[in-house]
Sequence to fold (243 residues):
Amino acid sequence: MRALQALWKFVRVLAWVVRGYVSVRRTFGTLSDEQQARAVEVWARGMLAIIGIQVRVKGHPAQGPVLMAANHISWLDILVMHAACHCRFVAKSEIRDWPLVGVLTTGGGSLYIERSSNRDAMRVVHQMADALRQGQVLAVFPEGGTGDGVSLLPFHANLLQAAISADIPVQPIALQFLEASTGAHSFAPCYHDHDTLVSSLWRTLCAPPLLAQVRYGDTQMANGRNRRVWAQDLQATVADLRN
Fold:
């Protein structure tokens, strides 16, 4: 029975993706920035509802300009953070070429980075700093890869340079996926190196109803810290927020 329910969800997920794709292609360009942001939020909430994930927000998202720094568990993290509050993500360049998903991610305002290229990292840092100076809300996953939601990977410091250069605050964010009925930690949404997008999606669809918790911490300025020290402090803050 659970497999049949998951299959029906999968069909609805595909239909929702196609709906979003058509919207981005046909009408997104006619909307204002504010209208686009609200449309992304509504679409993300709709997708999570189909999958069976409720979003619970603790704390308050900061107004721009701000750089949000969150731990990274799953491809679902972007949807969860969009559902809580729209922001522009810095995403790995491979996502841009994913069928359908790439168009949706680009429509959501993502900036893309070649993670293996130091030169491209500097390009993105400059682009991020310009966007932050314009008052925008950007988001990064400083771990650089996905963890299991229990332990944190080391926070990389490169992209934090954008906040230092633009002299704007960073808001730490802790993400968690829990079983809605028990509050126990759920590994179903995890997206590891051996997973494919389809396998991770299917595991999540087969799981019991889930709760995605987004906990916003207090914003903080660099206050003289270099990016490496700041990255370590942000990692500790995110760990405290999860606990």
